[in-house]
Amino acid sequence: MKTNHRIFFQNAKKMKTLKSGSIDLVVTSPPYPMIEMWDEVFKTWNPKVKTAFKEEDGNAAFELMHHGLDMVWDEVVRVLKNGGFACINIGDAVRTLHDHFRLYPNHARILSSFYQKGLSPLPAIIWRKQTNAPNKFMGSGVLPAGAYVTLEHEYVLVFRKGGKRTFDTVDDRADRQNSALFWEERNQWFSDVWMDLKGARQDQVDKKVRKRSGAFPFELPYRLINMYSVKGDTVLDPFLGTGTSMFAAMAACRNSVGIEIDQNFSEVIDAQFGSIVNFSNDHISERLRRHEAFVKERLQTKGPLKYTNCHYGFPVIMNQEKNLMFNPLQSADKTGAGCFEIAYSEETEIKNFQQTKNVDKSGKKSFQQLELKM
Ligand SMILES: C[S@@+](CC[C@H](N)C(=O)[O-])C[C@H]1O[C@@H](n2cnc3c(N)ncnc32)[C@H](O)[C@@H]1O
What we know:
The protein is about 35% helix and about 25% strand. The chain is an alpha/beta fold. Residues about 360-374 have low confidence and may be disordered. The structure holds S-adenosylmethionine. S-adenosylmethionine (SAM) binds next to strand 12.
């Protein structure tokens, strides 16, 4: 089994390279309107944003930035298949303009934009980001009534195009069964508050680069891809950045397409690609280890589990988990500029594969050595 991954360095406002109805799932995080680190990007999108800031007109700046994003959302709606999902990670912003401090509710603006374009909003996820910084509180300290609660969460908005996806052929149904999650993962992942992403491995890219690129943790797209698509599907990230969604798709045995305007990211992406086989297989091993620990604890507290997984022979809670199987990565090959291919082992055993081929010289640098030329 193989998957293909393609990066186009182009503007996501017009995804000419993508056919209508060709994408099963979109997972992305755009530049955040009204968050200072993205101001310059929005000014290049539309020079009127610069004028709005000069005039300290927050409402106008907010709307102009979202008009730009709306063009990308139009394209997302066009390229999605009927029954496909879009998951948008976004945070709100607070800002003082004209001596006026206020919230700019990005999540509400994007929710209403997708809704108006005809997609169905589904229950969203709140990603709780814990911060222990003592200076995190805003406003008048302990004096009422001029203090503001801190923003310690972001959203993952979830939408579906059209009605429920159907699985009509025997092969479709087999792929779906094969892509099942563990029962205990379902309970955690399908909860509407995610608290625990911090512990997930997210150190593939140097911390400074992650911060400057606004990268999300690997676990975020990895979960969403496993929750809203099946193996062999195609996942799109129109704001690819350091490539996190693409790597999550590789680890989850999905194909992917990434759009990114800034070519400087290719070096960081190649560097991560150099270790994707081991990284993904470690991630799969960790899921298996966690299931084994869950089973051990469950046997002690609640007695035997009802079903047995036919690939691994371990107990599972639901009949639907019987065919669940992970595909260990066997090799990773860079087949051309922005083109990557992953081959998967047919065996469930995770061996120490490590054959990443054709990675550029720059891709062999350690993550710590990399700095974006931005
Ligand atoms: C929040 S970051 C995405 C980070 C990504 N999720 C990751 O894990 O690295 C937004 C990305 O959008 C890119 N971008 C900005 N304008 C764009 C445009 N018009 N088309 C495509 N990408 C764009 C930026 O260069 C940046 O990498």
